[in-house]
Specification:
Layout (H helix, E strand, L loop, with lengths): L8 H28 L2 H23 L7
Length: 68
């Protein structure tokens, strides 16, 4: 599968910013879960961090998985 640019500069910027926010929220959840010994927080934070990193990848490449 090839990754072709299918979003404009505004969409790229939006994905990078929203990905960074999602990744930061995931990191906060992981930290909170580690401090409170709550596995559900850690798992939720890991999922959020992976989603945030994927959004950043989409923004850098200029590709949206939903539009592909």
């Amino acid at each position: 599968m090839t990754v072709q640019c299918n979003i404009d500069q505004r969409g790229r910027r939006a994905r990078i910013v929203s990905g960074a926010i999602t990744d930061a929220c995931g990191a906060i959840l992981i930290l909170t879960g580690a401090l409170r010994s709550e596995l559900s927080f850690v798992v939720g934070g890991a999922v959020a961090s992976v989603a945030g990193l994927f959004m950043i990848f989409e923004g850098v490449k200029g590709w949206c998985a939903l539009r592909a």
